[in-house]
Every structure is written in structure tokens, then in C-alpha cells.
Amino acid sequence: MPSQYRPESRSYPYDASMQNLRKACARRKELGAYPRPWRSKEEALMVRRLVVLWFTCRDLNRPSGRDWARQLGISHTWLQKLVREFKTDPSEVRRLQAYGDPAAEQLDRAKKYTLRMRDRGELRSPCRRVPPAIDPAIEQFVQTRFTEGWSQSRVARELFLDRRTVKSILQKVTQNSGQKTLARLPCP
Predict the structure, then answer these.
(1) Distance (Å, rounded) from C-alpha 65 to C-alpha 84?
(2) Which residue in 1, 98, 118, 182 could disulfide with 123, CB within 3.0 to 4.6 Å?
(3) Contact by Cβ (8 Å): 152, 169
(4) Residue range 149-157: mean pLDDT, rounded
(5) Whether the Cβ atoms of residue 40 and residue 123 lie closer than 8 Å to each other
(6) SS3 of 16, please?
(7) What is the rounded distance in angstroms from the CA atom of residue 31 to the CA atom of residue 29?
(8) pLDDT given at position 31
């Protein structure tokens, strides 16, 4: 479909999208909306060095990826991501090996620094965020709709709520009233 605007008043699509992207980036910087990192740069570097050590190890007693990630305190998916990165960029492996073999004390020191940064509020907290307080009127409304036969998904969709929120409301209501638990309620 052709544009409804006159040709002289519209810009090329690529130019317009780049202009919109610049505006969005400027707004994001202005708001400080970039997420904070999970850990300090020092700890991230130590983790990368230890993953390189594990990746280049040819010992038969090498631990599995999940076990190594658990020992480092990271997710195994991040470990796999780093390994894929190292496979595609061998110069990164050489750069990290140039630091020498990592020591456990270095990792402990980096983790302590991460904890200090987290206490100062410079990093994201790995804990789940506290769910928002739910209005008692909404709790009552969810309960009545559910007893009328609405499914949890429908209640969440109609009230613009998260399905977890609806589930927690229903669990709280059933626990308070002494009825059957939510898992045993029939699903319509």
C-alpha cells in the first residue's frame, strides 16, 4: 500500500528508522534505563578465565559443564555461551590464557568485591523481586470469577493480570478458607 503522505514530506524508510533508533537510544540514556550488571567486571573476568581453564583441560577427570558451572556459581547456559564464544574466537582464549592460571583466592576476592558493589546498589540483585501488593477488591473479584467457572488464563487475560498473580491469589484464598488446595480444583 502506498504511503498516504506526500513524497516530499516523508523520508526514506531506512533514514526514518535510524532517526527513531537514535531518539530511542537518547531517551534510554536520559532515563538511565540500561540494566545494571549481575556481577563486577573482576568476577566476570575470573569466571571467563576459569571457563577457559575448564574448556582447554584434556584431563579424563574433568567435571561436567553443569558441575563446573555450579562450582563457579553461574548457570550452565552462561558456561555454554562462553564455550561457543571461545570456539568462534580463539584469540579471546589466548588473551585470557595470557593472564596465567586463575587461583581460587582471586575468585574469592572478586566475589567479595561483587558483594560490596551489590550492597552499594551498583549491581542487580539475584533475588526475585518482591511481588506488588494486590488490592483486596481484585482478590475478591478474581475469586468470584473463578467460582463462576472462569479459567485462570481467562481471569488473567480479562483483568490484565499475570497468571502467577492469579494463581497466588487463588492459593491464598483457598488456604485462608480451608478449602481444597488449588491443585485439586477442577479446571473448566
Answers:
(1) 13
(2) 118
(3) no
(4) 85
(5) yes
(6) helix
(7) 5
(8) 63
Angle between helices 90-97 and 76-88 (to 10 degrees): 110
Kindly tell me if the per-residue pLDDT of 10 is higher than 80. no
Gap between the Cα atoms of 111 and 115, Å rounded: 6
**Rounded distance between C-alpha atoms, residue 59 and residue 133, angstroms:** 53
Treating both helix axes as pointing N-terminal to C-terminal, what angle do 163-177 and 136-147 enclose, rounded to 10 degrees? 80
Cβ neighbors of 172 (< 8 A, separation 6 or more) are 139
Map out the domains of the chain as residue ranges: 41-119, 136-184
Residue 36, C-beta contacts closer than 8 angstroms, at least 6 positions apart: 122, 123, 124
Grid coordinates given for 123: 549491581
What are 77-130's pLDDT values in tens digits?
999 999 999 999 999 999 999 999 999 899 999 999 998 888 877 887 766 555
Label residue 181 by pLDDT band (50, 70, 90).
very low
